[in-house]
Amino acid sequence: MGNKIQLIDRLRLGLAVSVAKSVTFMVRSLRLGAASVLPGSIARRIEPRLLQLLSKQVKNGVILIGGTNGKTTTSLLLRTILERKGYRVAHNSTGANLENGLITAMLEITNIVGSLDVDYAILEVDENIIPKVLAPIQPRIVLCLNLFRDQLDRYGEVDVISKRWTKVISTLPLETVVIPNADDPTLSLLGQQLPQKVLFFGLNEPENYLEEIPHAVDSIFCPSCGHSLDYKGVYLSHLGDFHCPNCGFQRSQPELNSNDWSQILVGLYNKYNTLAAATAAIELGVDEATIRETISNFQAAFGRAEELEINGKRVRILLSKNPVGTNETIRVVTQSSDKTTLFVLNDRIPDGTDVSWIWDVDTEKLVERGGTLVVSGDRVYDMALRLRYSEKTPESHFKLIVEEDLRQAIATALENTPDNETLHILPTYSAMLEVREVLIGRKIL
């Protein structure tokens, strides 16, 4: 870790860093955005090996976190744990998880000549570019959270991505530590096939099994032989306790007993994030007392179960960008006593332009419960139609409000939220950024 860089590389790196910092200064001074991507994009044109040169300088190694859901929360929790122990950590905290965003995050804390003085770098990485960045980064730990359908217009099905992951991770040095989700069949098999040290995380909580397998299920067939998997129970989507009656493939054994670990964030999906971060932190030598104390005081990342107070009303923002994630945020809402929900559906590049995934979401559970449902966003009428089709009877006791203007939609939702309840906002990614800007007047990206 932390290898020295040759003189010629240092000169090119210094030039790239100087240009990137100048771009960052101009963008922020002119209030054109947060400069979380553009500086890295320009700097990489000057020095194409920038990600490799920066990664080499990280003293104790890079922790790479990949998966469809949970990257930002897991990354922030692990970063908080390490910083509590006094380590200096680089982190792409804005969620810019493509290559230029990774570079920009590391450039942010270099000096003017490109020297990076950090103990760890935690990089949350878009699942589709993991095969591209693993070789230059050479991470110390690869944390594989889950694989669900997400932005099918860009990525395709989960088995395609998992095969790419397996192929490239297996080529990493043997000292690399891989931490996959034991409850995800594709990742469980991935871990069983790797030559590196593998530590699994997962749940041991049968009391939290779903009553039935949800519509948004991605992988109920054996990734080894293709036969249907038998499940003792499912926690969410295809995550659960499984085995294959045909070839004998079965769920891997997690390192930690999930019943021994508490969580502060709402949602069973955040229990997975907690266990993933705890498993990685223990592998890095952090004592359990520090990890538990950090978990008990942890605050959600922006838009991920983030809680705000707006005009005396409580607001909780639950990012909902794909079928599995939205089913879980709906589970959070329906388990509460709150009856006002705002859906904001966009179809921009960060969201994925194909919004047909909303028909795989179990919105029926929310409609059946009743209350007030406000919808907005670029595809407001698609969302409204989905909710109308969720009515099992014409006498459904829910109030649907369609509002094209987001600012007015938020105001309407707040007006319909009683003082003693919480307004739940379920936005897609770009919509979440807009919602936060309306509520607190500040951009993230």
TrEMBL record:
Gene3D superfamilies: Mur-like, catalytic domain (3.40.1190.10). It comes from the Bacteria. Pathway: Cell wall biogenesis; peptidoglycan biosynthesis. The keyword Cytoplasm does not apply. It catalyses: beta-D-GlcNAc-(1->4)-Mur2Ac(oyl-L-Ala-gamma-D-O-P-Glu-L-Lys-D-Ala-D-Ala)-di-trans,octa-cis-undecaprenyl diphosphate + NH4(+) = beta-D-GlcNAc-(1->4)-Mur2Ac(oyl-L-Ala-D-isoglutaminyl-L-Lys-D-Ala-D-Ala)-di-trans,octa-cis-undecaprenyl diphosphate + phosphate + H(+); beta-D-GlcNAc-(1->4)-Mur2Ac(oyl-L-Ala-gamma-D-Glu-L-Lys-D-Ala-D-Ala)-di-trans,octa-cis-undecaprenyl diphosphate + L-glutamine + ATP + H2O = beta-D-GlcNAc-(1->4)-Mur2Ac(oyl-L-Ala-D-isoglutaminyl-L-Lys-D-Ala-D-Ala)-di-trans,octa-cis-undecaprenyl diphosphate + L-glutamate + ADP + phosphate + H(+); beta-D-GlcNAc-(1->4)-Mur2Ac(oyl-L-Ala-gamma-D-Glu-L-Lys-D-Ala-D-Ala)-di-trans,octa-cis-undecaprenyl diphosphate + ATP = beta-D-GlcNAc-(1->4)-Mur2Ac(oyl-L-Ala-gamma-D-O-P-Glu-L-Lys-D-Ala-D-Ala)-di-trans,octa-cis-undecaprenyl diphosphate + ADP. Its EC number is 6.3.5.13. The active site is at residue 354. Residues 65-279 form the Mur ligase central domain. Residues 319-432 form the Lipid II isoglutaminyl synthase (glutamine-hydrolyzing) subunit MurT C-terminal domain. InterPro entries: Folylpolyglutamate_synth_CS, Lipid_II_synth_MurT, Mur-like_cat_sf, Mur_ligase_cen, MurT_C. The keyword Zinc applies. Zn(2+) binds at residues 222, 225, 244, 247. GO terms for molecular function: ATP binding; carbon-nitrogen ligase activity on lipid II; tetrahydrofolylpolyglutamate synthase activity; zinc ion binding. One of its GO terms (biological process) is regulation of cell shape. Keywords: ATP-binding, Cell shape, Cell wall biogenesis/degradation, Ligase, Metal-binding, Nucleotide-binding, Peptidoglycan synthesis, Zinc. The lipid II isoglutaminyl synthase complex catalyzes the formation of alpha-D-isoglutamine in the cell wall lipid II stem peptide. The MurT subunit catalyzes the ATP-dependent amidation of D-glutamate residue of lipid II, converting it to an isoglutamine residue. Belongs to the MurCDEF family. MurT subfamily. Forms a heterodimer with GatD. This is Lipid II isoglutaminyl synthase (glutamine-hydrolyzing) subunit MurT.
